[in-house]
């Protein structure tokens, strides 16, 4: 799933590609992805792109006062096309293509963007709105963890309000902190040497500072590594720099212990017992049931 660093890099890449270009046509191949009807999608056709922005994990293409807002969900992606086919795409359950954005010609070539979603579980969402805050999940986003106003004191207030909720869930809650998903919450907690199950309101003063620094450094470093990369390179860059997420059974790069996993219905978390839980494996009830 694209998270804050990948969406930030996508926004930077598209900002350079789309600046001053006109959107001539938008083709919808998967109508389930389109979540709005007013204004109609045709309203953005002919509009000039003014900028590309990020709101948490949402990508926002601004054009002539309208905002085409994308949430790529778990398996969505944006693919640049140097040249798009002349014929519009046909709706198909077998194709990953959801939406195609066709741009004006440059040097006789019509470029564009394909918004795709792999797999059978379709969660990609596309909105055309007059204000990004018209998208309900954008309007309720928490603070951006890389913004100047995301201070140590603000994190302290967030954790205090969360009470006994587990750190992993607090970091992932988009209404609490925007942009951190399953992968980077694992990475942040590993960098902070904290259990994902640690209660949010149990941190000491020093632990709060450690967690704050881990949030800013983990995300900031990922953004810096991704800056300037093309969209086709971002997934590999992310995967190659993960310490624990997606590395179950592999050695921890810090201590060499085996990275372990806790499985849930539709996701999992990874952690290092030595670095994060005092050497004790966390209970994995789903795996325990399978072994009985």
UniProtKB/TrEMBL annotation:
Needed cofactors: Zn(2+)
Reaction catalysis annotation: Hydrolysis of DNA containing ring-opened 7-methylguanine residues, releasing 2,6-diamino-4-hydroxy-5-(N-methyl)formamidopyrimidine
GO biological process per UniProt: base-excision repair
SMART domains, per the entry: Fapy_DNA_glyco, H2TH
Annotated organism of origin: Nocardioides faecalis
Keywords for the protein's UniProt record, in alphabetical order: DNA damage, DNA repair, DNA-binding, Glycosidase, Hydrolase, Lyase, Metal-binding, Multifunctional enzyme, Zinc, Zinc-finger
GO molecular function, one term: lyase activity
The protein's name: Fpg/Nei family DNA glycosylase
One protein family per Pfam: H2TH
Family classification: Belongs to the FPG family.
Top-level taxon of origin: Bacteria
Formamidopyrimidine-DNA glycosylase catalytic domain span: 2-93
Ranges of residues in domain FPG-type: 243-277
